[in-house]
Amino acid sequence: MAVLELVELEKHFGGLPAVDGVTFGFNDGEILAIVGPNGAGKSTLLKTIIGIHPATSGTIRFSGTDITKMSTHRIRKAGIAMVLQTPRIFGSLTVRENVVIGAMFGNPKGVSESDAYEEADEMLAVVGLSSKADLAIDKLNLHEQRYVDLARAIAGRPKLLLLDEVMAGLNDTETASSIELIRRLRDRHGVTVIWVEHVMKAVLSLAERIAVLDFGRLLTSGDPQVVMRDPKVVKAYLGGKALPDA
Amino acid sequence: MVPYVAVAITAVILSLVPLWIGDSRTLTGVAVSGLLFACYATAFNLIFGSTDQLFLAVGALAGVGAYTSAITSDRLSLPLPLTIILGMIVAMIISGLFSWIAVRRSLGIIFTGIVTLTFSLAFDNLLLGQRSLTGGETGMVIDAGKGAFFRGQIPPYYVFLTLLIGFLLAYVAIHRSRMGWAFRALRDDQLSAELSGVNVAKYRIYAGAIGGAMLGLSGALWAHVEGFISPATFTFVHVDVQVLVMLVFGGIGTLLGPVVGSAFFTYLGEVLASFSQLRLIVEGVLLIVLFLALPQGVVGAIVIGITRLRERRKGLP
Amino acid sequence: MTAAILDGLVLGLQFGLLGVGLTIVYGMGGVLNLAYGAMAVASAIVVSVAMRSGLPAVPAVALGILTGAALSLLLNVTIMRPVYRRRGDQRVLLSILLTIGVAFIINGYLVWKLPIEALSLSIGGDAISILGVPMRVGSLLASAITILAGVGLILFFRRTTAGKAVRSVIQDEVGARLCGINPASVRMLIFTLSGAIAGLVAVTRSMTSPVPVSEGFSLTILALLVTVVGGLGSVKGAMLAGLILGVVNALSSFYIGSYITTIVLLVAAALTILLRPSGLFGEYT
């Protein structure tokens, strides 16, 4: 069953389409990677889903509810969380307090402060940052800050996680650990993951399904190994050059 | 617990001030006005310091409270407590409306400042123009407050000290609640706050409305305690510029910054009173020097200092 | 009606040029100079004092404009330096706070030393009839100077190398830097120019109504309104906004009268900001 459905979704900026009539269903519990050349509208698609950019036209349905016109905070409470490419953490708060915010406000039910603290500690344990909970957030490196952002996103137990190039700028060990963490989130917590990524190695080792965007349109989708050999994709994506590791 | 202790210490220190200044009526008047400005600055701190909304209508909102209460009590003979609440509510609604507009039109700091500034100026002109209702620039004498428990029986100083302590306690309570978490999040990063599920618009409007209510209440009480108000009491130059300067000096977004700032500038004004012409120049020089030397304000700098000391003691970097 | 509109245009031209001086500084460095009105008044007072001590009008006026320019230059090389090290909202905020301090100092000094000084340049001659309306020579001269200054500024921005450098920095600071333009020196130029404009407006304004020592704050507010209505950073927008607000001002004082005029003006400004947050001209220059 599709947990998230896009119907003829369009997002224009000053008349230029960034997302151009995308119709697609995301399956419950899958890890799906959205790939495509720079400027294909991948990030814009995620930001339109979560309401940062209001959709120009079309419909977004989440678990059967129309969320097209909802504001970001309501969509978050309804069960969709997002991690942006550059971690936007709360600079004046500690690591734990950053996650407490997510636990407190990301949950559709009102969560008391003490419950939020408990939840935050649990989420920090999931991402493996319990030992750094009391540090000021700027003492952490990029990789760790992304994990804090991720912990903040999964606090309140969203059903759907949108990840925007969360492996950009990481070294090999960090990438491997991120892959392992995302897989674990899905396996243990049943989160559906929609993930925009440029790091192809990571996509091919983690994604169960791939959707290819080009000029704001959905080019094709399906099994990673099959999709990445599709001549249409090869042409759009790399201008005909061979794919790495595919 | 620390913030409540800080408020308690402040209350004790401020309640001893009358012993120090003695029977002088002039000095008492100065001290009362200092407390009033501390109340204004605390309200402004909630709006600007906690949620980044630059409301340049502090004086005007207090004026809304004062004139609403004065007119409804003196001209319409409504019961005094009711008119004070009315003044508070009208200021709250207008202020909340500012926030709502700023949120809806996504006005940044500067535009919010300018829209509220135009309100201040228009309100001032309205007071000057509606002579039959407000007495114009000569002001209006308010009789309704005579015989009220807070006029005569309690010295005005303690009326406003109580109000200030009330505001500070409210400030602490708000910041320790869910709303305080939302404020911290939206001040740090509005987009991240939204992504974490914080309804940024709602909490901005809350801050605007609560701050507006505080301003309206301060203004209404002032009208009845003093028994006289005039447009000059609430102008942008007399109130907003002063409050902004006091708050930034004391420390934006700190609990006691407003109190420290207004105490300092009230004291300075008194010291310079005999050279009144020099006052503006000295204030100007001080402003520049202090903003450059202590961008986080006095209280902000102290808090940062303490935090560093603690970290060093814990052996953290 | 015609008389009211003509009066409005005379006033509007002054408003417009006043706004231009403030808006170029914002467009250039993203800072607001709230000492702007105080600097204009300081220039006017210098002219007045110079003329009282026997200097002829033209050199006195030149001295006044130079004062505005010099004050502004001084501001740019001293307290604006730390401001430019900040970014975005922080930068604007610090510039506001520091220039409030500067305004205090200038106002304080003038009120202390010359509390009753005011500049009022009376231009003699019989009224000249324009569209059947007799206009005072002072108003016409003030308007002519303002139009000349406005056209001069536009030519400066469009035609001269320095002007083009300014525009390039406004559009793309990094790009301009790559082309060998130093944003800091362009900022200095603009700041000085802004001070000179402040001085000039004070002088032309004094041809129609006296400019007293206490005028500084209201001039700043007026400039701010014009700037915001015209779109922060837009020269064309400021000129147009000045004209519109001037005419609105004259018409409403003609038809409605008294204090309502100011309120109408303020409401008009607030509405423009709300309906078009980017101003009449959202883009630069």
How would the blueprint of this fold be written?
The complex is a heterotrimer of chains A (246), B (317) and C (285).
Chain A: E1 2-13, E2 16-27, E3 31-35, H1 42-49, E4 57-62, E5 65-66, H2 72-78, E6 80-83, H3 95-105, H4 113-127, H5 142-154, E7 160-164, H6 172-189, E8 192-196, H7 200-206, E9 209-214, E10 217-222, H8 224-227, H9 231-238
Parallel strand pairs in A: 3-8, 3-9, 6-7, 7-8
Antiparallel strand pairs in A: 1-2, 1-4, 4-5, 9-10
Helix pairs in contact in A: 3-4, 3-5, 4-5
Chain B: H1 2-21, H2 25-51, H3 58-74, H4 80-104, H5 109-129, H6 131-134, E1 140-141, H7 156-176, H8 178-188, H9 190-195, H10 200-226, E2 228-229, H11 236-250, H12 257-271, H13 276-293, H14 297-314
Antiparallel strand pairs in B: 1-2
Chain C: H1 2-29, H2 36-52, H3 57-77, H4 80-84, H5 88-113, E1 118-119, E2 128-130, E3 133-135, H6 137-159, H7 161-171, H8 173-178, H9 183-205, E4 211-212, H10 216-230, H11 235-255, H12 260-275
Antiparallel strand pairs in C: 1-4, 2-3
Name its key features.
heterotrimer, B: 317 residues, mainly alpha, ABC transporter involved in vitamin B12 uptake, BtuC, two-stranded antiparallel sheet, 14 helices, 2 strands, 1% strand, globular, C: 285 residues, two-stranded antiparallel ribbon, 12 helices, 4 strands
